[in-house]
Amino acid sequence: MRIVKLDNNSKKDLLANLLKRSPSQYGEYEQRVADIVDKVKAEGDSAVFEFTKKFDKADISAGNILVTEAEFEEAYAKMDAELLGTIKKAIVNIRSFHEKQKQRSWFDTSAEGTFLGQKITALQRAGVYVPGGKAAYPSSVLMNVIPAKVAGVDEIIMCTPPGADGKVYEGTLVAAKEAGVDRVYKIGGAQAIAAMAYGTESIPKVDKIVGPGNIYVALAKRRVYGNVSIDSIAGPSEILVLADETANPRYVAADLLSQAEHDELASAILITTSEALAKQVSEEVDKFTAVLSRKAIIEKSLENYGYILVADTMDDAIDAVNEIASEHLEVLTANPFNELAKIRNAGAIFLGQYSSEPLGDYFAGPNHILPTNGTAKFFSALSVDDFVKKSSVISFSREALEAVHNDIERFAKAEGLTAHANSVAVRFE
After folding, report:
1. Which of the following is catalytic: 178, 238, 327, 357?
2. Which residues neighbour 290 within 8 Å (Cβ) at sequence distance 6 or greater?
3. Which of 23, 89, 121, 265 could form a disulfide with 236 if both were Cys (CB 3.0 to 4.6 A apart)?
4. Distances in Å between the alpha carbon of 85 and those of 70, 78, 82, 142, 379?
5. Cα angle at 202 between 149 and 76, to 5 degrees?
6. In this predicted model, which residue has the larger pLDDT, 335 or 232?
7. How far is it, in rounded angstroms, from Cα 145 to Cα 211?
């Protein structure tokens, strides 16, 4: 991996390079996505089936688009028993974590006759997108579905691309059943996003679409936003490791590669105050890469977006951490909880040498659907909050309104909204 001295110029160059990975930078795909979305909106099922045949080579129709109970049973029969046990354990951890996020409606009254509050209501129908294609991700099923179930969403549907044989990977189906998905549809890509956003003859319109995907999925979510809600427009995966001289270079190297293997656009960055560690990590990365199964992807990822930055001080390193605002941040220092207080921007923070990033991907409980491309400065991990909406509740008695009606009328008239003022005034004629 390249080793670079951390200064203002190198930090600026790094940030500019990372921004190239944003879905917003891939304008050449936008028209293709727009054409797919618009065709599905106009033609419904027929367009969905056409695009599924074109992109996934699968013959999908109204008769087989919905995964049947027989297909779920077949998936369970194929499923490795130990993996199923692991999925069940992960569900317990994920559900327990997200149950702590639940908010309740609240109301407040006063002796003057006011009743104010906030009503929390779960969404009626959520749509979950789960990638397929080169890799299948049962873990993403759990992370998207369980917060929705905890929130109390009435109905959860899922779309995931089939193989050319028209079947869905058994791990994805088993995870969906275990997590509580109501219906699974065998479609993927931009066409799946459009179908959930607008509804077709076979697929109902949802209120919100969540879940990661490729550039077509990301751009399709951006295009349909406003007609439905979305979680975020996710970019490629990324990891940043903050380390001092006490860090184990093999651990650091292994953790960097855990994200570099996702795809060629993934980002893996080490920021350290130790030149010796920087060199050791670079050597360990080379050793691991030579024997890992996704060597070609890792090499391309590191060539494009892999960095080791050497900082003069830990404060300089943390400043860079907050500027980069990485999806995953590992803190491998002598006292990682000391650094935690200074970290403002990160999707998920992993503290200590035994808290490697895959722990969060699969098992610990916090959500792995995280903000990317610097959006951790203002976005959060997927949570129960993403599946509820909040309504203000207001009730005043005549006596309570009488005490303040002059103030309200004065405010309205100052803004030139005389009908607003009249709406209150007529009650005291």
Report:
1. 327
2. none
3. 265
4. 21, 14, 5, 14, 33
5. 55
6. 335
7. 9
DSSP helix, strand, coil percent of the chain (3-state; round to 5):
50, 15, 35
* Side chain identity, residue 80: D
Where do we find the tokens 């980069």?
324
Q: Any catalytic annotation for residue 328?
A: yes
In terms of DSSP H, where are the helices of 79-115?
81-99
CA atoms within 13 A on the CB side of 41: 15
CA atoms of 326 and 320, how far apart (whole Å): 10
Structure-block tokens of residue 27: 């304008």
- The whole-angstrom separation of Cα 283 and Cα 312 is 22
CB 383 within 8 A of CB 98: yes
Query: Which tokens in the block code for residue 264?
Result: 């060629």
Residues 261-294: tens digit of each pLDDT:
988 888 999 999 999 999 999 999 999 999 999 9
DSSP 26: -
Rounded CA gap, 218 and 283, in Å?
35
Percent of the chain with pLDDT over 70: 98
Which pLDDT score, from 0 to 100, does residue 158 have?
Answer: 98
Angle at 366 between CA 124 and CA 294, to 5 degrees: 105
9: its two tokens: 């110029």
Measured at the CA of 196, the angle between CA 372 and CA 234, to 5 degrees, comes to: 5
The values of phi and psi at residue 210, to 5°, are -130, 160
Q: What is the mean pLDDT of residues 244-251?
A: 97
**Of how many residues is the chain composed?**
429
Q: At what angle do helices 398-414 and 418-425 cross, to 10 degrees?
A: 160
Amino acid letter at 373? N
Q: What's the whole-number mean pLDDT along residues 68-73?
A: 97
368 an active-site residue? no
**C-alpha–C-alpha distance, residues 243 and 387, integer Å:** 36
User: From the candidates 178, 238, 261, 328, which is the catalytic residue?
Assistant: 328
> How do residues 133-159 score in pLDDT, each as one tens digit?
556 789 999 999 999 999 999 999 999
One-letter amino acid of 60: I
Tell me how far apart the alpha carbons of residues 309 and 265 are, in angstroms, rounded to a whole number: 19
- pLDDT of 213: 86
Provide the mean pLDDT of the chain. Answer: 94
Task: Report the first-to-last Cα separation within the chain, whole angstroms.
Answer: 78
pLDDT at 74: 96
pLDDT of amino acid 232: 86
Give the separation between CA 162 and CA 187, rounded to whole angstroms: 6
